[in-house]
């Protein structure tokens, strides 16, 4: 079976991080995001993957490289989720797996495909259960999994289920016939509601296991904490034992993944954080529940908590940063105090 990964969105909610690094390749624990999806597809013997890209495609290609099992399709204008799938039609030859390029999960793809085939579905939407259904678009099904209704961010009184679209589908080629070529078209807003209205067999498979979409800074950080605190073990093998930075006396780290090319100053403490290549951390620095990209310099006595720090940032001495997202190359002066205001 082939897979299409929808990876052409601009990732606006992850700005400023995605201004220079497109969301499909933002690092998750120092590994480009799509490597996690490609590894999952490899585990289930998916033959070929079509990457539908449009926003900064050359950066995605330079990170993931070329192979005869990976095809890039570049959109000149965004075609939307379904339009992007239609655009990859010439590469497809049957039942296809489609993934949003921003979901991290450990779904059993074999079980999903078997469910799809057993129901002779035209489309199977993988569903995941959430604790707070009111902030999502819900997908309601019968007990045997046939989709009955899509509810977009319902009020409390209208909530009938806790299952949401996980951004992963199994689709039959007939679905391609209802998508116009070269037009912006959406699975969620058009294709699935239209299939349902016309009485076609649309099923929802409630997948057990881990799922998160990394599309907001909060969820991007949470995905790290889930891996670093071992609540989620991804298919990608992370070389924990190689992650041994140059530590000065009294410096230590816990539940953290730090590139071996980093230098950590005396008495600095790092908890539940990932630090990418070539960072230089001063003395007595505290880094807690944060993600630090490559080439970052952090001065003595600075405290960083709940932050994402983009590539090549320079943070001075004795600064305090809390719940702050810094785009690449940001300079923070000595003694600064930064805390993201809650809207
Ligand atoms: P935001 O701007 O923060 O909403 O992020 P996004 O642009 O990635 O949009 P969204 O999270 O809704 O997209 C879900 C998935 O579909 C992501 O993996 C996107 O890359 C992908 N996607 C969204 N729109 C397009 C598109 O027009 N073309 C392609 N190829 N992929 C898309």
The 3D shape can be described as elongated
CATH topology (fold) name of the largest domain: Spore Coat Polysaccharide Biosynthesis Protein SpsA, Chain A
Strand neighbour order, sheet with most strands:
5-4-1-6-11-8-12
Arithmetic mean pLDDT: 94
Largest sheet: 7 strands, mixed
Q: What portion of the residues fall into strands of 2 or more residues?
A: 25-35%
The CATH class of the largest domain is identified as: Alpha Beta
Helix content: 10-25%
Helix/strand structural class: alpha/beta
Ranges where pLDDT stays below 50 over 5 or more residues in a row are none
- Unique ligands: guanosine-5'-triphosphate
Domain module tally: 2
CATH architecture of the largest domain: Alpha-Beta Complex
Fourth CATH level, the homologous superfamily of the largest domain:
Spore Coat Polysaccharide Biosynthesis Protein SpsA, Chain A
Q: How many β-strand stretches?
A: 30
What is the rounded Rg?
22 Å
Whole-Å distance between the termini?
A: 44 Å
Task: List its salient traits.
8 helices; alpha/beta; binds guanosine-5'-triphosphate; 2 domains; seven-stranded mixed sheet; about 350 residues; Spore Coat Polysaccharide Biosynthesis Protein SpsA, Chain A; 30 strands; UDP N-Acetylglucosamine Acyltransferase, domain 1
SSE inventory with pairings:
Elements: E1 2-7, H1 17-20, E2 27-28, E3 31-32, H2 33-43, E4 48-53, H3 57-64, E5 70-74, H4 80-87, E6 96-100, E7 103-105, H5 109-118, E8 123-129, E9 137-141, E10 147-152, E11 163-171, H6 174-177, H7 187-197, E12 202-206, E13 211-213, H8 217-228, E14 246-247, E15 252-254, E16 257-258, E17 263-264, E18 269-271, E19 274-275, E20 280-281, E21 286-288, E22 291-292, E23 297-298, E24 303-305, E25 308-309, E26 314-315, E27 320-322, E28 325-326, E29 331-332, E30 337-339
Parallel strand pairs: 1-4, 1-6, 4-5, 8-12, 14-17, 15-18, 16-19, 17-20, 18-21, 19-22, 20-23, 21-24, 22-25, 23-26, 24-27, 25-28, 26-29, 27-30
Antiparallel strand pairs: 2-3, 6-11, 7-13, 8-11, 9-10
Bound molecules: guanosine-5'-triphosphate.
Guanosine-5'-triphosphate is lined by residues 6-13, 23, 52, 54, 75, 78-81, 84, 100-102, 215.
